[in-house]
Amino acid sequence: MTAVTSTGARVGARKPSGRQALRLIVLIAIVAVVLYPLLWMLGTSVKSQEEIVNNIGLLPETFTPGNYTDGWRNFDFSFGKFFLNSAMVSLLTVVGNAVSCLLAAYAFARLRFRLRGVWFAVMIGTLLLPGHVLIVPQYILFRSLGLVGADWPYLPLLIPQFLATEAFFVFLMVQFMRGIPRELDEAAKIDGASPFGIFRHVILPLSRPALVTTAIFSFIWTWNDFFRQLVFLSNLEDYTVPVALTLFIDSTSQSAVGPMFAMSVLSLLPVFLFFLAFQRMLVEGINTSGLKG
Amino acid sequence: MALTTAPGRTTRTGSPRPHATRRGAGRDRHGEGLAGYVFLSPWLIGLMGVTAIPMLLSLYLSFTNYDILTPLSEVEWVGLANYERMFTQDPSYWHAVQVTLTFALVAVPLKLAAALGVALLLNKAWRGVGLFRSLFYLPSLLGGSVALAIVWVNMFNRDGAFNSFLAIFGIEGLPWVNDPDWALETLMLLAIWQFGAPMVIFLAGLKQVPSELYEAASVDGANRFRQFWHVTLPMLSPVIFFNLVLETINGFQGFTAAFVLSNGTGGPVDSTLMYTLKLYISGFTDLEMGYASAMAWVFLIAIGLITTVFFSTGRFWVHYSDGER
């Protein structure tokens, strides 16, 4: 295996460098196009009101950080309130998804029980089930339970996440666990381990990459999620960041564009930092699960 | 205890005791079965409470005139009236269907083509792969957010960055997002811009193609194109299939950007009225939840049919090397 890889590398090194240079230029051009909207957003967020209309270039002529303070204080509550709400919903969702999906995935990947095939098929079915289809009846159900617009209105957003309804993560973990050599289970079984023992001592420690991937995706998706939060949150003080951002669109005046961009930048910052911190693990998680599939 | 281990030992040494063996296996299976349901219980509760029961409720509601203001006990059964209205009396419904299909049929193939193309470029690059991969992936993480939709809409405004780019070449741009002929295209571009997620999956798939296959192919005299066609594509087909199914279903559900562009109306002139946005407006703006439920069920059946088509045609072109091992 190592011999093959090193031969491949040597063949690669012998290739004409002109082709590689061309490849690099094309890649850099694509990067420029891909990153332009992000850089433009960043630039616009520190432009003055006049410059937003007149100077559409990347960089501002006069640096106007005031958009950030204006945006932060734009509502009756400081924008920080919305950040706290979003952070709470996102972090609790991470916990819920990680725990509940791991349990379900272990059952599907490793345990033999009646109707497993049927339930697995149902799970795959829900994988493709659009959340939008369920939003109306879920709204009615949670409302009849008094959970919509309650003092703490986040239960309708969180309950599904603690019940492994995010089938994508269950599926991802099942795929990952299938890659863990069964010999490890067999060895533990011969040593007298129960299904719970195998879960605790074999599967759980080895599933860490899949758990990290789940946690990162969970956080980012929930942080960015708009549809469910739009439907279930009705009081300004309970709003999460995405719902609060749409309030800027409602005020059509041109003066709101700078603050709106400033708050948009801030709203993307956690996702960006999360990505910077965990991207290696994220890609590793994806690659490991693919490797053993 | 000694009795149960003894027969096991004799079984192994060659004098089978079928009765004891069966009992042993049965006990094992029973323990694992119980554990299976213990581990599965959160998922099962979620399946029933958050998925199955709401689905049945929505099926029932789709035959009623339920709005959130009247109590559930006083709803009126209206038979197929909601479905009739949807298919025959509500032109904006058909508009939503058309907008959604157009969006998925154009944006998804282009996004996957971009993803595969860049993945192929990146797979052969000799350095900086990690950095490029991260930079390309970033839009997928940020692109679904309200913040980015806001940026996108402003970028394709009359005064936006896109028109200032066109001005360099002396082209006078349009107010793209306010033009019914172009608003949906800007949303498609936003979707394609997020090609990084399928690209990462393609890249991981490309790394799995054994280099022996390429060596064998080049020994047989296959050129680059034939290698791509006869080695890369078949070996990558499970990954292509995965990405295709996922992106298509995601494509049908685009909501956020359409909501932001049109401020929740689906405008200009219903040109960005994605199906989910139409559903949202019916259910939560007009409060016609019976009608919205009927819409949801038609959507569900449509997604189910499309998925079935994918999976039944998939067996003809998806190549799983695992099966041969």
Automatic annotation (TrEMBL), chain A:
One of its GO terms (biological process) is transmembrane transport. Belongs to the binding-protein-dependent transport system permease family. CDD domains: TM_PBP2. Residues 83-278 form the ABC transmembrane type-1 domain. The chain crosses the membrane at residues 21-42, 82-106, 118-142, 154-177, 198-223, 256-278. It holds the Pfam family BPD_transp_1. Keywords: Cell membrane, Membrane, Transmembrane, Transmembrane helix, Transport. It is a multi-pass membrane protein. It is found in: Cell membrane. Its main location: membrane. PANTHER family: ABC TRANSPORTER PERMEASE PROTEIN MG189-RELATED-RELATED, ABC TRANSPORTER PERMEASE PROTEIN YESQ-RELATED. One of its GO terms (cellular component) is plasma membrane. This is Carbohydrate ABC transporter membrane protein 2, CUT1 family. SUPFAM superfamilies: MetI-like.
Automatic annotation (TrEMBL), chain B:
The chain crosses the membrane at residues 37-63, 93-122, 134-155, 182-206, 227-246, 294-318. Belongs to the binding-protein-dependent transport system permease family. Coiled coil: none annotated. This is Carbohydrate ABC transporter membrane protein 1, CUT1 family. InterPro entries: ABC_transporter_permease, MetI-like, MetI-like_sf. Its main location: membrane. Gene3D superfamilies: MetI-like. Residues 1-28 are annotated as: Disordered. One of its GO terms (biological process) is transmembrane transport. One of its GO terms (cellular component) is plasma membrane. Residues 97-310 form the ABC transmembrane type-1 domain. Keywords: Cell membrane, Membrane, Transmembrane, Transmembrane helix, Transport. CDD domains: TM_PBP2. It comes from Micromonospora halophytica. It comes from the Bacteria. It is a multi-pass membrane protein. It is found in: Cell membrane.
